[in-house]
Amino acid sequence: MKRVLITGVAGFLGSHLADRFIREGYHVIGMDNLLTGNMDNIAHLFPLKEFEFYFHDVSKFVHVPDNLDYILHFASPASPIDYLKMPIQTLKVGALGTHNLLGLAKAKNARILVASTSEVYGDPLEHPQTEGYWGNVNPVGPRGVYDEAKRFMEAITMAYHTYHGVDTRIVRIFNTYGPRMRVEDGRALPAFFSQAIRGEGLTVFGDGSQTRSFCYVDDLVEGIYRLLLSDYHHPVNIGNPNEVSILDFAREVLDLVKNPKAHIAYKPLPVDDPKIRRPDITKAREILGWEPSVPRAEGMVKTYEYFKQVVK
Ligand code: UDP
To answer: Which domains are delineated in the chain?
Structure first.
């Protein structure tokens, strides 16, 4: 049985990855310090002998007994509001945490996949974003703590690959949605669903003309799984190129939830908020034979089912 370590296992993506790897017959060692993770996301895994959990902050030295085949580094705060509240932890888990896990990968002779992000492109001046684009990031702005930690993550991962010969993979993840997103994490989708369900104003920042491209979590997990098992060590964008303005996205939530009290409530645009974002997924198509298959209308219905249960 192959053994995989997943950091950030109690988070949105980490928990879905754990489910997938258990289904594929792996032994999953999950690690989380529960800074933004939620034990409810992995409670169903605890009875399984194929799953074990370590409560640990990976920005400190990481010890795992016995052998490891794969490491997936998914621990990090992941919403702009979280970066504002936890800037130092965000920097540490992306930088020191990645260093520790690369060291672990080297010691265990394990393959490591690190979760990078479309935020490495910052407020992009090229559209859509190909992996060849170097980005437009403000290092000292509020999002810089995340963006620069992830850029460092990519740099140190490539350095471990070229200098130490560690077997590495880098995924650049674009906006992803689905069940288990944290209700109060402040990102657009959890905010809009919870506000619509409660009959409140949907807080559209700015005039809502800024765009994002949302990928359903099952599609993302499939792309990551394929990348891990590929032999490609340069960064690969995984995301859904179907781009939508934030205002239209809020309207889609209103149409789905149909709460007569819910409405659009405009709020100021946060500093350095990227104006446009859409992945070019040519590489993922060519190298992994991957492209998203879940249309937003379908993914949003599944996601609404989840938020109906958890929003109080
Ligand atoms: N946004 C919004 N209202 C909210 C939360 C976010 O209008 O309550 C906007 C935000 O300004 C950004 C987009 O939605 O333009 C996506 O924001 P999110 O925090 O989900 O992720 P980002 O892609 O910015 O990291």
So the answer is: 3-177+215-241+281-288 (3.40.50.720), 188-210+243-277+295-310 (3.90.25.10)
